[in-house]
TrEMBL record:
<dbReference type="GO" id="GO:0003677">
    <property type="term" value="F:DNA binding"/>
</dbReference>
<protein>
    <submittedName>
        <fullName>GntR family transcriptional regulator</fullName>
    </submittedName>
</protein>
<dbReference type="Pfam" id="PF00392">
    <property type="entry name" value="GntR"/>
</dbReference>
<feature type="domain" description="HTH gntR-type">
    <location>
        <begin position="12"/>
        <end position="80"/>
    </location>
</feature>
<dbReference type="InterPro" id="IPR036388">
    <property type="entry name" value="WH-like_DNA-bd_sf"/>
</dbReference>
<keyword id="KW-0805">Transcription regulation</keyword>
<dbReference type="InterPro" id="IPR036390">
    <property type="entry name" value="WH_DNA-bd_sf"/>
</dbReference>
<dbReference type="Pfam" id="PF07702">
    <property type="entry name" value="UTRA"/>
</dbReference>
<keyword id="KW-0804">Transcription</keyword>
<dbReference type="GO" id="GO:0003700">
    <property type="term" value="F:DNA-binding transcription factor activity"/>
</dbReference>
<dbReference type="InterPro" id="IPR000524">
    <property type="entry name" value="Tscrpt_reg_HTH_GntR"/>
</dbReference>
<dbReference type="InterPro" id="IPR028978">
    <property type="entry name" value="Chorismate_lyase_/UTRA_dom_sf"/>
</dbReference>
<keyword id="KW-0238">DNA-binding</keyword>
<dbReference type="GO" id="GO:0045892">
    <property type="term" value="P:negative regulation of DNA-templated transcription"/>
</dbReference>
<dbReference type="InterPro" id="IPR011663">
    <property type="entry name" value="UTRA"/>
</dbReference>
<dbReference type="InterPro" id="IPR050679">
    <property type="entry name" value="Bact_HTH_transcr_reg"/>
</dbReference>
Length: 263
């Protein structure tokens, strides 16, 4: 399947909602390759919208390569090319896994510059607002298919030890270590975001597509922030998992994450 990154979502909030829900069901295997989607009338009842709204959503799915409109057969799910491998990361050991991912996937550097730290980044890193930072934007791919869009900010006094050519060929964590940084801890949050036009183009998805959003602040042994990362992941190619175990006894029995390798 070839996804058209420039077609965008259908017009109208209801049509966009139907488009995203159907696309997620196709991506998650609810409708497999070659399967026929329910007819427009049934879909309209299911989503409580008009048939015109359903038609707009289906036209957008067809334009993006998710389905094919066939005379007499309706809307049929198109076979997906297995150009990329869907990756999973254990939430309890996410950072080591992301470090390993740096070694096993390829990255393309989109931009490299020095700028003033945005207020939110400066606050997270514990540096003055407007302080000089090195900003880099990269896209990471697996099997030639882009799956993550990464924006990093590093304080200038650390970043001067590497240049654009270094970052284009080496993982950032290695460059930080080379500069003498001793990483001690990190804090990260996981939420969701919608693809902006530039991110959609880089990840080859439609504008407004839902993405997994991971923010991470890395600190050294003195508690000083040394890296601020904003990472956007395609949910059809990357997911977070967590293994749980029941521990304790009686009323105190509860779930705890299992710290270990990936399944």
């Amino acid at each position: 399947m070839t996804i058209n990154a420039h077609s965008g979502l259908p017009e109208g909030g209801k049509a966009r909602r139907v488009y995203l829900l159907l696309r997620d069901e196709i991506s998650n295997g609810v409708f497999k390759d070659g399967a026929r989607l329910p007819g427009e009338h049934k879909l309209a009842e299911q989503f409580d919208v008009s048939r015109i709204t359903i038609r707009r959503a289906l036209e957008a799915l067809a334009a993006d390569g998710w389905i094919e409109k066939k005379i007499g057969a309706g809307s049929v799910v198109r076979a997906q090319e297995q150009t990329g491998q869907r990756m999973s990361a254990d939430f309890a050991t996410l950072i080591p896994h992301l470090v390993e991912m740096d070694r096993t996937t390829t990255a393309r550097l989109l931009s490299f510059s020095y700028d003033n730290a945005p207020a939110s980044v400066a606050d997270a890193l514990g540096i003055p607002e407007g302080a000089d930072v090195q900003k880099a934007v990269r896209v990471r791919s697996s099997g030639g298919q882009p799956f993550s869009h990464l924006t990093t900010f590093v304080p200038k006094d650390i970043a001067v030890s590497y240049d654009e050519a270094d970052l284009a060929t080496q993982p950032l964590f290695r460059l930080l270590e080379r500069s003498g940084v001793s990483v001690e801890s990190a804090h990260q949050t996981v939420t969701a975001a919608l693809a902006t036009p530039d991110v959609a183009d880089a990840l080859e998805v439609s504008v407004g597509s839902p993405l997994l959003f991971v923010q991470r602040v890395v600190r050294d042994a003195n508690g000083q922030g040394v890296e601020h990362l904003s990472a956007l992941y395609r949910p059809d190619l990357f997911r977070l998992e967590m293994s749980l175990a029941r521990v304790g006894a009686g009323e105190a029995r509860h779930w705890e994450p299992v710290i270990g390798g990936l399944k």
